[in-house]
Automatic annotation (TrEMBL):
Every Ketoreductase domain range: 16-201
PANTHER family per UniProt: BLR0893 PROTEIN, DEHYDROGENASES, SHORT CHAIN
UniProt cross-references to InterPro entries, sorted A to Z: KR_dom (IPR057326), NAD(P)-bd_dom_sf (IPR036291), Sc_DH/Rdtase_CS (IPR020904), SDR_fam (IPR002347)
Keyword match Oxidoreductase: yes
NCBIfam families in the record: PRK06172.1, PRK07231.1
Pfam families assigned: adh_short_C2
GO MF annotation terms: oxidoreductase activity
Organism: Massilia eurypsychrophila
Family per similarity comment: Belongs to the short-chain dehydrogenases/reductases (SDR) family.
Keywords linked to the UniProt accession: Oxidoreductase
Keyword set includes Oxidoreductase: yes
Name by which UniProt lists this protein: Short chain dehydrogenase
Amino acid sequence: MVVKNKQQRDTSFEGKVVLVTGAAGGIGRATALAFGRAGACVVVADTSVDGGHATAAMIVEAGGKALFVQTNVTRAAEVEALVDKTVAYYGRLDCAFNNAGIEEEHLQLADADEALFDRIVNVNVKGTWLCMKYQIRQMLKQGGGAIVNTASVAGLVGAPTQAIYAASKHAVVGLTKTAAAEYGRDGIRVNSVCPGVINTPMLARALEREPTRQKKLRNIHPIGRFGEAAEIANAALWLCSDQASFVTGHQLAVDGGLTAI
């Protein structure tokens, strides 16, 4: 009789406490679920109450542990409270995936207005900075940790009709590199993941507004397709894992070859 080995459950983050922002859907939800499957206690953060609770429920239903905390990452008091609640509930913070961000711009630089600039920079730059500020303070207390920020290919190259978004993601890259340099000797690794065009609800909304862009956007990826949220999740988990123990200050492009040409 041949006995087939049962597929072993991934326990690579067993006992780890992970915080994921922007986790109510898309890349954030996929990453929160992946951490949950890998054994982590996951703190789900988002402004969306329904979406955040749904993500946490999905983790629990799959056998994992999760806590939802409604958080606006642009407000320092809420971000500080998020980290405090994480530690109060689970005892520590080992990893953070700072994914909360917005993309509302499809205008050439001179056509955008100041309100749009302020809104994008407030969420994408200030939000990432605030998250790292309070996460790093906690990680310093406990002797280390790993942080991954969601940047973008637009943080590596120019992005016509998305100048403000590109500027915000270049800023995320700058924050990532600087934090990595400042806190490497404290046992804190900081990296960013830079997605290409990913098949998410955000993309679906954009294509509803401009359906003619779909073919063009797909064709800019040499691999010939959009990415999937789970593929970004895989990259984020690797960057947070012990397998990436000598990786910090790095911008990992998960972009189907977009930045190769």
